[in-house]
Amino acid sequence: MRDAGISGRVRLLALALAVSVAAPAGMVAAPGSPESVSTGDVVRGELGAALNRFLYGMVPDGLSGAVLVARGDAIFLKRGYGLADRERRVPNTSETRFNIAALASTFTAAAILRLQADGSLQVTDPVERHLGDFPPDTEGATLHQLLTHTSGMGAGGAPLDLSSRQSFVASMKAAPAAGPPGDAFGYSDAGYTLLAAVVEEVAGVPLETFLRRRLFKPAGMVSTGFVWEPRGAGAAPAVGYVGLHRDELVPAPPLGEAWGLRGTQGIATTVGDLYRWVLALRDGTVLPPREVEQMLTAHVGNEGYAWHVVDSTDGPLVRRGGGLPGFESSLRWYRADDLVIIFVLNNELGLRIPVARGIDRIVKEHAAVQLSGQ
């Protein structure tokens, strides 16, 4: 279904940002390079100032997180708001790391496609080719079906052993299937953890190592890693807070290390590194064009490989978000016009939708003003 509201906003915004693309020296480097994401806050031009005023005005309501808005290689806003640690009064900045919840699954999908590009596997492979025999009710399920949540595995809520890769795979084999492979869509975090097991088995290294070497480092994502890894990936992430009112927030329980969390969560990063991730996919830095298109194409409904792909008259909107106790994340990429909106929050005060709608409203208003010549 085409979204006329999205397409109109994108068309206006693309024209407006083309008018106001000049940047102060030092903010933006060569297009497509990891260095094109500046270190530190960016509030650029009228659009950046308007967005900053709106978001700063939400801090008394409890807004706490970081936001980035960009077109192509030009960043208009990159800034933190609220507190990363309320007890110590540590502010969020544009370089604060946040647990991005299910947005982590985009890296798992890319890891599978990186191995395909290397010739080590194909997404049409049955899972048992890499992880041994599965019971008859899931036999023949493919990596593609895991990537699109149509494998029938792990969608029934059966208890799983997260303690190690071997234990997790064994418990997945023992769990009843939700249905025959390919029969129906059924969202499954466990399916993506099974994909993480495939990556480790085929690559012969832990998932953390593979992601760091083959995805994060080539993309210039120096602040990205699992929350339980040593601090080499950057400072400790922001504290996540739970509660219904800003004066009643308490720290969420920390995410402990368990092998079975890999594949779908556990990664902490910055808004700048998430933008580097978009640039790396756009420019073919981490995957060849064929694999990028496989990942960012809707295969079942609006499901790509870990991304949701929404059709519009201007081309696809690619988006992914995630949530877990204390954190929410959102990444939207309008590919035809190279518009990127990213925000991460470290509390659960229900501000995700107001933030998204407010950003959309401001960029649309800014586009209208630019086009009217005011």
Strand content: 15-25%
What strand order characterises the main sheet?
1-3-2-14-13-12-11
How can the largest sheet be summarized? 7 strands, antiparallel
Distance, first to last CA: 34 Å
Total beta strand runs: 14
Q: Uncertain regions: pLDDT < 50 for 5+ in a row?
A: 1-7, 18-35
Proportion of helical residues: 25-40%
Backbone CA Rg: 21 Å
SSE series = HEHEEEEEHHHHHHEEEEHHEEEEH
Query: What value does the average pLDDT take?
Result: 87
Number of helices: 11
Rough outline = globular
Structural class: alpha+beta
Would you write up a description of this structure?
The protein has helices spanning 4-19, 45-58, 105-117, 128-131, 143-147, 165-174, 189-203, 207-219, 271-283, 289-295, 352-372, and strands spanning 42-43, 65-71, 74-81, 83-85, 90-91, 98-99, 225-226, 241-242, 250-251, 267-269, 308-310, 317-324, 327-334, 339-345. The chain starts with a helix and ends with a helix. 35% of the residues lie in helices and 16% in strands. Helix 3 runs parallel beside helix 7 (189-203). The strands form 4 sheets. A 7-stranded antiparallel sheet has the order 1-3-2-14-13-12-11, with helices on both faces. Strands 6-10-7 form a 3-stranded antiparallel sheet. It has 374 residues and is of the alpha+beta class.
What's the short version?
The protein is α+β, with helices and mostly antiparallel strands and 374 residues long.
